[in-house]
Fold these 4 entries.
Entry 1:
Amino acid sequence: MNCVVKLTQQMRTEDLRYLQLLERLREGQCNFEDYELLLTRVVGESSVSLREPPWNQAPMLVFRNEIGTQLNHRSAIHNAVEVGTNLMVCVAQDFCKGKPVEEPALPKKLLQLSDSKTEHLQGLLPLVPGMPVIITQNIAIELGLINGMNGIFRQLVYDLDSVSTDSLSKTFPVNTQYVHKPIYALIKISKSKIEWNLEKLQPKLIPISIMEQTFQRRALPLVSAYSITTHKSQGQTLNKVVIDLKLSKDTDDIATIYAPLSRVKRLSDLIIWRHFDYKVLQIKPSKSQVAEIQRLDKLYMETQKRFSE
């Protein structure tokens, strides 16, 4: 890379005071007034409630994929109860050398693996009509069906003979229906670039079919989006979000704090679900991060000179 363009204007954040806080945060220079400002958004300190709209529908950002999966499963179970339907769980099909895994104990163990180890194809995907989902694979880039795209699950099309109530996980209720051969899911994707309506489908309703990865797993390329990781949220602008700023002791990366705080346009668009330590706002960029910024700045100056001639 020998050409760099530097964006000098923050286009997402509309709240000036909050923008100044974020600028200090990037340098690890937040002051106590910044800390006190963020404390006004902590659940219990502010007037908002997680049980009321819009916060009961806002995604929660978490640092670890495993925690996000647990929260998504619990939210799907709760949502199924709320709408009065049995939970439906899509079961991935795992293969070894092109053949289904036959070792009796192995299939269940494979289904419990984190999707970060299975090329982002979940072993057990709970689905409830109306729930938020995220596409996890690039399906059709030119149509906007890309990794990270948000949508709303509407309906599952599947082989009727593949449904079973035999439990595959203690996480889900006993009346859960396990679908072993899903065909495709109908997802409403508002930001899709498809300009025509598919036959017999409502506008923006897109069929997302099962995919197969080199891990030798066939599954729907979807995950629940009640909760998403901070890594997955990068590049997104969220209308409302619930975040957690309480870090584990071994975490000292400034991005883990900056990413969740910078996903919204205004401070009023986020709430923090528990108290956090002031020192997390003073994490400094690492030496490697500083070196990379300096390298890019140098390339930016050279690019300006090259194209000004």
Entry 2:
Amino acid sequence: MLIFDRAFCFGYHQIAVSADATLNVGQPVTYDNFVISTHPNAGRPGYQRLIKEKENFYAAPGVDGQLTRDSRELFAGAHSVVIGQAPIPEDKIYDTPRAIRKEMGGDDYYSTMFLYPGPASTPDQYRNQFVVWRIDDSMFLLKFGEDETTRLNTLYQNQTALLKRFRPRGDFEVPGPDQHGVCIDDGFIADANDGKGEHFFKTPFASATFPTLPGVRLHVSVNVGSVREGDYLFDRKPPGFVVALFDAFKLRTLRKAERNINGVAGQELLTAWKSEVGEQFLFVWESTENPRLAVRMEWGKQQGAPERQTASPLNEKDALAVWDALLPTLKRRPVQGAAL
């Protein structure tokens, strides 16, 4: 059986995995109002290319009335490209944009940041030394009469403070209890020392695969604010085609029960069926409180053409033993104190 002796950190949480696991934090992730995408092998050439693509896409005459207003380096390896509303010529008829601008009292501006932290500082981070992060959605309204230069300087100060909280992180590196913040793909964002405690964080499924268990995939996710009454795991009905598929394969319920994981209430649903390629399993646990934590483990490749599907590498008893060893390791990453 697998030995879960390494920690996989995602957002404010962690779960144990085996030392040979291949890990991936789903993206893009949302941190406060920022949308963050990871480019793991871009390096400095990719960093420069991404900046140039953004600048050129909104170069005059711009796209949808927008153009690049400014583009500058914030510090070594950090760059910001600011997009703003293009001035509307008086001799052109743009009634709708003009009306919107008048109602808003100004022009929409937004910025995309790019961060290339450079060579990694520890051997565990070596493969991540070429990572580049793209951070979207620095948005603000430049009011009519407001000085653009002053507003941009304030934006750049805030962006610099944010980007200096990013750092590379190795696959199995879990920040210490004195480090408040979130784990993202190949990196870590330290929370601001603003007294607000934890920041909003949401990620698609992060995943892990195991070379010794071919066809097995672990998915974990956190989604703040998504738990609503009537939308618990046991309440949801699968799509009709899934029901028909499971009917054909005689779906069996191995376990369906409430299950508390490290103080978090949740529901567990474990199913099995015998397909054309052999026995397959789907194990799911979801929290019934916010943030929504979800853990899903697929046993056997269950999608794609029949010739590409595979059976579970373990029998029912052994698969359940692996699941019951892994699920209780899901927990919030220990930190000192609730607020920063």
Entry 3:
Amino acid sequence: MAAVFDYKSWIGKSNDWQPKAMIAFHAVAVNTNLQENEEGDQNPYCGYPGFKLSCTNDSKTVLKLPYSGEFYVRDINYLKQQIQVIDPDDCLPKRILSLNFSGSPFTAIFHRNYSFLSCPYQNAGSQFTPIECLSNSTHFISAIPSANLADSLPESCYVSTSLSVPVARSGVLEETLTFTWDKPDCRNCEFQELMCGFESSNSSQVLCFPDNRTGRSQRGLITLRTITVTIVAPAALCVIVIVCCMCYKVRIADAAFQSSAQAAIGPQHTTITGSTGLDESIIESFEKLVLGESQRVPGPNDVSCWICLSEYKTKETIRCIPECKHCFHVECIDKWLHMNTTCPVCRNPPSHSIVHVITSDP
């Protein structure tokens, strides 16, 4: 379809196919004279009136306004229909003084009133910053927002001109200008990743069309998206579900273990018939230690109590069973040994010579 706008202008080398280096004007509907990038003669009606591009010898993309001259294109946002340009001579304030959008489809997004001052160099400082490309050896030019202009300027300074300046949303005069356009409105096509083109060769009405001549980079992106959606995303979801299930099972097991341990050592409000344990004198004969700053526990022990699973802290008192050297919080092991005659870790009983079993009667 000849009316579809698929012309592409490149920043960089002609064979640079990286998407980040591409400025594609298919959604801007560019009327371009870059025949060198097209095969054969280009239809003069293939672009929308007012969008004129050219290319420099060093591969800079140029936008030309009828009454304001040429600007280098830095960036284009098709969804917002904005184009960002810079001055080829790095003197944007000079271009602003004569900026005229007449005869072009572009307008500025924001405006702010600025006053351009002319002052001798002895007044240069924090209040007035010289614009070097507009200044000479004796006087400098500075631009400040008119609202910030002091009621009384230094006698040596004067306002050379005041005008409404197109600026960024912040209102600050920057090194770039951002223009926008209303017609053609191709934002909907861009959002749907379709081509924006004329309804017919004799009409200026634009419609969205499928791109039947997608480039290599676009085909690669589409393929990558398809693979991601159909394979990678479900696989990642499965991994997440499996990990969550494993974590849930571990947490359930830990909770069950802690619950059983707490139940085993918890306070007994009723007398257990036939339960047996060690005599109080035997339990008290087992060694007790107060942990120091290092919290180091002797013997084959971990950093936490085997019964309550809480980590040991400085100045806590622990009790160790003589034969196996397993240690526990005093409160935990005392309650355990009142109901049991073996170590809760290795299940080995203390020496027979010191064991005196007591039986709690109903």
Entry 4:
Amino acid sequence: MNPAAALHLTADRRRSTGESHQALHPLLSGPGQGLSIPAARDAEQARLEAEVFQRVCAMGGLSCHALGIVRVRPQEDVLTLRLVDEPAVLGHWVEFLYPRVSDIRDAGEDPRDRVSGVPGLRSARVPGGVRLYRPGLKAAILLRGFSPDRWERIAAKREGVYGSVLRRPDWTTVEEAAYDAQRVQPFDILSSLLRRIRATAGAGPVNSTDVWTSGRGIRLETTDGPPCSDLVRLLTKGPCGLGWEVTAKTCTCRCDHPHTSTGCSVDFLDPATGRPVWYSNLKWNRTLDDNRVETLARLRSVLT
């Protein structure tokens, strides 16, 4: 295959996942067939990815990589995420992911209110990284790009806060109840977005992506996202698209002057589920200034 043609066929996936052309080229199946992004194998894999995604979104903008994710390697039975090797980023992943079970008992209380983080989440050291999983379930996420020793040191410092849950090989009763109570969620859509998280990052030095549910729909927000035309193309059409439709759009990307108070918004609809996805790009135009450098230094000392 012509090298230029092959490069074109991997372009959308490279933009969506951060994978290299060299890694993707062997996956090309034929002339003119662009690479797609495989969906999670089953509902449990999609659920784990969705719940991890929702938790780490609280991190905010700590690097040029949205959620600190440099690269995504999507496979049907496992999702591999390469994180930036930044202690503050790793500290936030540990902080927001690992479950913390409250000792406060109230017969009328929703069990989900007693568990912070991802109910049932455990981790295991694997060659070159850390494996996230739930006991007794096959779903898994592999985290790479950093020293597992550093991750374990950060987790060990938090063990005084989380208690013995980090070392527990099975579920607690409260975690099981919280897991069973959280049945109706758009896990498939959230999983698909995480597998395309690089598509939400702009070209600036600071990126932040957030997602949350709102009624039957999903809110997707970036603070310094990409041009709307790029994101719309990657999420709707093409080999990596989700088949979404655009129902409304307000875009300032092509204006000949900067906007400091007006961002962009795009309303999507997922025809397969009937769920709306409301996207907004706040366009904060943040820079890696002295204040942000000082904030990172302070977070390193607190979280690690």
